[in-house]
Amino acid sequence: ASILQRIAMREEAAFEECVHRYGALVWSLAKRFTTTHVDAEDAVQEIFVEIWQKAHRWEAEKSAETTFITMIARRKLIDRFRKSNRSLE
User: Fold this and answer.
1) pTM for the whole structure
2) Which of 10, 25, 26, 81 sits 20 to 30 Å CA-CA off 3?
3) How many CB atoms lie within 10 A of CB 7?
4) What tens digit of pLDDT does each residue of 49-79 get?
């Protein structure tokens, strides 16, 4: 089974493997969308929580794991960016 399928079955070892395999990708996206190191760390944590929560939605025939994880990260980061801009207004 893939990492996301195993996460969907709530396998903690799969989650750790996901963080190890995709952590650098998620971190690089977070660094681009945030202004501080602390914000990037918070964003990465939120993204991995969302991956844990939404892994069951992944369909192997529709996208690669990397694509699914990138899309979750991108959406979460855009939401954070919009929220921070609203609070500045």
Assistant:
1) 0.90
2) 81
3) 26
4) 999 999 999 999 999 999 999 999 999 999 9
Kind plus residue range of the DSSP H or E element containing 27 = helix 12-33
Are 15 and 52 in contact by the 8 Å Cβ rule? The answer is yes
Question: Phi, psi (5° rounding) for residue 42?
Answer: -60, -45
Enter the tokens of residue 44.
Answer: 């990465």
User: Tokens for 33?
Assistant: 């969308």
44/36 Cα distance (integer angstroms): 12
Q: Where does residue 56 fall: left (phi above 0), alpha (psi -120 to 50 degrees), or beta otherwise?
A: alpha
